[in-house]
Each structure stands twice: as structure tokens, then as C-alpha cells.
Automatic annotation (TrEMBL):
Protein name, per record: Dihydrolipoyl dehydrogenase
Organism: Spartinivicinus marinus
EC number of this enzyme: 1.8.1.4
Cellular localization per UniProt: Cytoplasm
Cofactor(s) required, per the database record: FAD
GO MF term (any one): dihydrolipoyl dehydrogenase (NADH) activity
Disulfide feature: 49-54
Domain FAD/NAD(P)-binding: 5-335
Length: 480
């Protein structure tokens, strides 16, 4: 007899495990299926984000930043440190322990909230049945009143650079290097490529990033993107735009990567390691039976409406497997929305205010519209900016690269976008997101008391600068 649940969630990543916990909190009998196997050979909850994505990459980013600080920047504080060294295996071991703590934490949350966990691969059948296939090949059927598909995404592979163990790796492999490569090639100058490139660059690798597009960080506000590009160049990240990779060849312990540059010339670079970071694709392999009724587009994304309903009543899909940015926080909020809808509550998500962050140092972050988007919309607008070079807190921390930008509507003064490159950019942008969620004007932010000295004063000053009222920089003349 098949087990019956109110909600069956397929996938225990940030979208799936959050949906399962919220559904259980709302009194729904909930199961969650996960097939990810961790390094210890046991099922690991948390999906890409906890196991090989957001969390482990941040662990390495922080370790590498601390190493770089000790090696290159302590002296300015009057601190002398000799023979600074990096133990890469120890750094990787620490990262693995953090992952283990967090994935184990999700298992604890399932237990505390009464979520039934199933190990195996889930498949949606007709009639809202879910088949769970375990590692030993045995299968079990679950009956569900509602199904939430949250199977996530996987790295895209490209034919010119097929993955070769230890030499050409994806983002997962880049988290496992046991030594610092002398020359590192990164294909793709997006979030993942920049973050992983900066980790190994800080530790001493010579990093070349090859990007096919001719615009750096096309999704970001271009004023901020250009400032970020200058900062990364100073950090010796060699980012080459308009470079299309055409092939690769393994030569012993090295990889020759062939590409055409911005002039159309054929070029070749030799690397010790190559990271392929050209994006991710939805993971829908063997997910849907032919008669399940759930529809996908040609790229493998599941069709859903604004509240993540598929075309089959009672079946939802959330996270990386549906339209929108592939971000853990977006997936989590979709999971909560769907769980609440299933429980009969009113629930809606604001897709206009999903923050984006690149965790380099300095960070790059934004929420709302870019200046390019506002200009294209024809809306009248005004802009205020403030550099961290004028921030007392940033000076005290020896961390003054970057700036804050606030875009507001010319007539209503409503904040349309907040964009930051600089220290704690993610946290400052989140303050902007809260303000925007409540429909704040730039004047509202300007009238808010910010503690001194803080980095967040830069957001306060940028909001004041929108109307030429910044105190700690000379105000630019307003454009007509």
C-alpha cells in the first residue's frame, strides 16, 4: 500500500527543504525526497547550495581573503607577520566540516518539524503519484495530494572543454583543489567564475578569465560593473571579454585552451587547471513520466505561473527548475509561498526585489532596476552616488574601494534600484531591498538616522545625493 502524504517535495535543496519545513509547520503531512550522496557515502540534504555551492564557496572565499589580508595588508595596521603560508588541504577540510554541520542541521530540522525524508530519486507519475527509486534499484510509490518539484540545477558543460578529472573541472571540482595552481583558466566571467577565480587568485594563482560576451556583468548596473572591473584588474584578475573558447587539449599535466579574441584572432593559453563556469541548467533528468501532464520548455525549465503552479492542478515547481534567477533565496521564498498556498493561505512573492550578490572582495550587489533598465523604460529618474573612499568606517578598515548608487523616480522620489560595489555590499543592498519593499522614497532613507561610523552611512549619503543633499562629498550638479 503506497504511503499517502498531503505534500511530497522532490529535492532537498534551499527551495525544497524550506518548502517541506514550512508545509509541515502548517500541519500538512509532508515527505521530502533527496538522492544527493555526500562524501561520507550517506544521503546529504541541502542540495547544490549547501553541498557544492553557496556555502562551501563562501568558506573558501573567506579563508582566501584572510590569507591575502595577512600576507599583503596587515602591515598598514602596524601588524608584522612573517612567512604567511596557506595549507590548502586544511582549508578544504574546514570547508567540508561546515558543509557537514549544515547538511546535518537540515536533517535535524526535518526531524523537529515532522518531515519524512526519503533517500532516492523521485519521479512524477500520472495521478499525482511519485516513484522513489533507491540506490539499490528498489522502488516505492508515494501518493500525494500535492507535489512540489524542487530538483535544482547542474553546471553546464561545453563541447570545447570536456571535463577531465583533476584538470578541467566544473564549479564542484574547483572546490576540491588540494594545491594552488600556478596558472588557472576560468571560462565564464559570471558570478561563479569571478568568485572561484578570486579564491585561487588570492592564494597565488595567475588567473585568466575568458568571457564570450562583450559586456562585463551585463545583468548589473553598468556604472557599478565598470567600477568592479577596474577593482578586479588591480587585483590581477585578467578578465578578457569577447573571447570565445573553441577547443582544448590536455598535454600531460597541463591544458591548452584555444579561443578567438575580441579581434577575431586565434589564441592559445596554457593552464595547470581550468574551471568551466558558463552557467547552470535545470535538473529534470528522469523527473517526469510521459503522462505526468507537467510541461517543460526546450531548455528543460518547467512551465509555471506567477505562483509556481504547473499546468497540472496540485503540482508545483520552484527554484532553479523554473523561470527567474537561479538564486537560493529566490527558491526558498518560492518554496514558502507554495507551502502557504497549499495550506489555503494567501501568498505572493515580489519578483521585482530579488537581490543579487557576487561574493568577491569587494562584493558586488544590487536590487531593483539598473540605470540602463530605467532609461529604457522611459521613466524620468535621478541618481545619487557615494564613494567608500569618503567613508570614515571604510577608511578605518582599510577597505575603501567601490561606491553606492541609488536610483529614484524623478517625480515620485520612489527608490527604483540600489547598486553597490564595496565592503559589505550584500548587507547594504539588503537595507535598500527592505526600504523598497515598503515603497520608500530616497528622502525616506535620507531622513532615517544611520549610526556613525558605519559602512551603511554610504547608503544614507547616496540617498541624500539623489537630490544633491549629500553631506560628506561635494554634490554633483543635477542633470536637466
Amino acid at each position: 500500500m503506497a504511503q499517502k502524504f498531503d505534500v511530497v517535495v522532490i529535492g532537498a535543496g534551499p527551495a525544497g527543504y524550506v518548502a517541506a519545513i514550512r508545509a509541515a509547520q502548517l500541519g500538512l503531512k509532508t515527505a521530502c525526497i533527496e538522492k544527493w550522496i555526500g562524501k561520507d557515502g550517506k544521503v546529504a540534504l541541502g542540495g547544490t547550495c549547501l553541498n557544492v555551492g553557496c556555502i562551501p564557496s563562501k568558506a573558501l572565499l573567506d579563508s582566501s581573503h584572510k590569507y591575502e589580508e595577512a600576507k599583503d595588508h596587515f602591515k598598514v595596521h602596524g601588524i608584522s607577520v612573517d612567512n604567511v603560508d596557506i595549507d590548502v588541504p586544511a582549508m578544504i577540510k574546514r570547508k567540508d566540516q561546515i558543509v557537514k554541520n549544515l547538511t546535518g542541521g537540515v536533517a535535524g530540522l526535518f526531524k523537529a518539524n515532522g518531515v519524512t525524508a526519503y533517500e532516492g530519486a523521485g519521479k512524477v507519475l500520472a495521478g499525482k503519484q511519485v516513484e522513489v527509486t533507491k540506490r539499490d534499484g528498489s522502488a516505492e510509490l508515494l501518493n500525494a495530494e500535492n507535489i512540489i518539484i524542487a530538483t535544482g540545477s547542474s553546471p553546464i558543460e561545453i563541447p570545447p572543454t570536456p571535463l577531465t578529472e583533476g584538470l578541467i573541472v566544473d564549479s564542484t571540482g574547483a572546490l576540491e583543489f588540494q594545491e594552488v595552481p600556478k596558472r588557472l583558466g576560468v571560462i565564464g566571467a559570471g558570478v561563479i567564475g569571478l568568485e572561484l577565480g578570486s579564491v585561487w587568485g588570492r592564494l597565488g594563482a595567475e588567473v585568466i578569465v575568458l568571457e564570450a560576451m562583450d559586456t562585463f556583468l551585463a545583468a548589473a548596473d553598468q556604472q557599478i560593473a565598470k567600477e568592479a572591473a577596474k577593482i578586479f584588474k588591480k587585483q590581477k584578475l585578467d578578465i578578457r571579454l569577447n573571447c570565445r573558447v573553441t577547443g582544448s587539449e590536455v598535454r600531460g599535466n597541463e591544458v591548452a585552451v584555444k579561443y578567438t579574441n575580441e579581434k577575431g584572432e586565434e589564441c592559445e593559453e596554457l593552464f595547470d587547471k581550468v574551471i568551466v563556469a558558463v552557467g547552470r541548467r535545470p535538473y529534470t533528468e528522469n523527473l517526469l513520466a510521459d503522462d505526468s501532464g507537467v510541461k517543460m520548455d526546450e531548455r528543460g525549465f518547467i512551465f509555471v505561473d506567477d505562483q509556481c503552479r504547473t499546468e497540472v492542478p496540485g503540482i508545483y515547481a520552484v527554484g532553479d527548475v523554473v523561470r527567474g534567477p537561479m538564486l537560493a533565496h529566490k527558491g526558498s521564498e518560492e518554496g514558502i509561498m507554495v507551502a502557504e498556498l497549499i495550506a489555503g493561505q494567501a501568498a505572493q512573492m515580489n519578483y521585482d526585489l530579488i537581490p543579487s550578490v557576487i561574493y568577491t572582495h569587494p562584493e558586488v550587489a544590487w536590487v531593483g532596476k539598473t540605470e540602463e533598465e530605467v532609461k529604457a523604460s522611459g521613466e524620468p529618474y535621478k541618481v545619487g552616488t557615494f564613494p567608500f573612499a569618503a567613508s570614515g568606517r571604510a577608511m578605518a578598515a582599510n577597505d575603501t574601494a567601490g561606491s553606492v548608487k541609488v536610483i529614484a523616480h524623478e517625480k515620485t522620489d520612489r527608490i527604483l534600484g540600489v547598486h553597490v560595489v564595496g565592503p559589505s555590499a550584500a548587507e547594504l543592498v539588503q537595507q535598500g531591498a527592505i526600504a523598497m519593499e515598503f515603497g520608500s522614497s530616497a528622502e525616506d532613507l535620507g531622513l532615517t538616522v544611520f549610526s556613525h561610523p558605519t559602512l551603511s552611512e554610504a547608503l544614507h549619503e547616496a540617498a541624500l545625493a539623489v537630490d544633491g543633499h549629500a553631506i560628506h562629498i561635494a554634490n554633483k550638479k543635477r542633470r536637466k
